[in-house]
Model the fold of this input.
Amino acid sequence: MWKKEIRLAGSGGQGLGLAAMVLADAALRAGLQVSTLQSYGPEARGGASRSDVTLCDQDIANPWFSKPAVLLALNEKAWMKYGPELAEDDLALVDSDWVKLPERRTVYQIPLERIAKTEMREKLAANMVAVGALAAAIGRIPLDVLMEAARSRAPKGFARINQDAIRRGWELMEDLKGGVDRGGARGA
Amino acid sequence: MATELVSGNEACARGAIAAGCNFFGGYPISPSSEVAETLAKILPGHKGIFVQMEDEMASLGSVLGASLGGAKAMTATSGPGFTLMQEHLGYATLAEIPCVVVDVMRVGPSTGVPTAPSQGDVMQARWGSHGDREVAVLAPASVREIYDMTVNAFNIAERLRTPVVVMFDEVLAHMREGVELSAPSHDELWRRPRPLEDPGPSFRAYLPNEDGVAAMPNFGDGYHFHVTGLMHNEKGFPTTHPETIRGLMARLKRKMDPLPFWLPAEHYRLEDAELAVVAYGITSRVAREAVDRLRDRGVLAGLYRPRLLWPVGAADLADTLGRFQSVVVPEMNQGQWVEVVERYLPSAVRVVSRSKLGGEPMTTEEILEGCREFVKKGVRAL
Done:
């Protein structure tokens, strides 16, 4: 059985709910079983926010998990909360401008928000840069399927931006993976 | 049919449409709001009426009025709103007004934690309204089942002329799963019994048929009848006659008898099991994984999952679980349905409550830990 329990963590308003939807929708289109969960406080913006996604090649008996195998942390608080639980071979991606890592930890590091801001001219697209990068790291979801899911789920006027952001995240992760395979660092 | 990514609350709204719901009166409240939000969008397109009322009492009031007018009517709420609806739920029971009430459970008491799950309303759903009434309470455990059970709820409400509660928790409400939602056929939708005779002075609005259910005309069809929360005779008019009251109460209880047969509990890997876990709603999803893990380690575990919390399918519960030495009941409350399990099982069965509070579902590891003391020595350590 192939199964990935993914946690997307940051703060309210960063679009983690949409990121989970795009990832799950694409996985569904790619023939996987999916479930998503979200956790947030009473406020609409700010405050800790979290979306969990389970991808599996069989029926998902239990959609609820306490410890993820894949973590996206968009800020320091999210990393402090969930980072320490990760096992050595778990996968993590952090926004390297916002998360200070202990030196020896091997984690994919991309300045997600900076890339969204400078290249897409839209800070909010950091979530989609992350989706592209995560999907490339996890495997199983082809880029074109991901792009189609992003287009269909995009808020009005955001389809192009979100697709560009996903493609960029995907490319960055491909580069990072190559670097890791060659024994290099995991930072972009 | 395509697989879609649908949340529990959306599935509930779409189940209502599939069941023929054409009236929703409600007041938004986390974590049930998306039921109302979805119906506000799609109900008008299905020739239905959506009304946002001023509070939860008025919400259920509007639903009861609409139902008496012939509508298939529903409301959705969470704990604080469900509390306010208890009076009208009792009224709907005695006046026999079909309606569906969805309660998405969050942490309580009072306003508690609006965005976190619990299973704290289980006993309230049974005993929340006064006066010794029988209730119908359904507990789905997946997005697909929320859709199906919303249809079931309308069917039961219409056929038995009774309020039906569908209850699930915040996790199931906001969880999205890949599902194929196929609408029930016309024949799969049950309708309230209609009077066969023409309107006239001899019409008796509360004269029961063989099922113990009286034919129900719509207000405005020309039939003269009286609806009241007072004890009433077959014409619907108030009475204090003890025999009449006893007969009415017995009938209201008896008409619910088929429910456990319509919604039997799920038995998962119980046949050769030596340890049983009883769980419902989201907790049953976690418990299923725990059972599988126990089996992987050589422990013969099984899951008993009630889909109907009230009335209790007591015969099946006792037949299935009566032979076990130990039964573990994990719940996201301080032990509510565990009392039911205790009541209907022989005293030789050790029934143990495993409770989790705080707004987080139980984890697989916690259920495994809760089973640890019942695992025989010699089995690979948990």
The longest strand of chain B covers residues 99-107. The radius of gyration of chain B is 21 Å. The mean pLDDT of chain B is 96.
